[in-house]
Amino acid sequence: MKFGKRLKQQMQGTLPGWRDKFLSYKHLKKIVKLIASAAPVLLNGSLEYGKAEAEFVYLLNNEIDKFNAFFVEQEEDFIIRNKVCFCS
């Protein structure tokens, strides 16, 4: 089974509030394909190649920030619910 299909199944089987927290795999994959297909035509230093690459990096950074915010929020909720003290 391909990763995209597995991810989609995982998303459908998870909590509804978590569905938007998953990686925007399809969008990232489209940009990677665009970059890969344009690479032979466009030189690495060209403006169009740079734009597609910058868009990918921007989206990927946003996805990383989204994951980070989600996990920090989950950790905070866990600590509050369980009144866990991580003191040294």
UniProtKB/TrEMBL annotation:
PROSITE patterns: SPX (PS51382). Residues 1-88 form the SPX domain. InterPro entries: SPX_dom (IPR004331), SPX_prot (IPR031142). GO terms for biological process: cellular response to phosphate starvation. Pfam families: SPX. This is SPX domain-containing protein 3. It comes from Prunus yedoensis var. nudiflora.
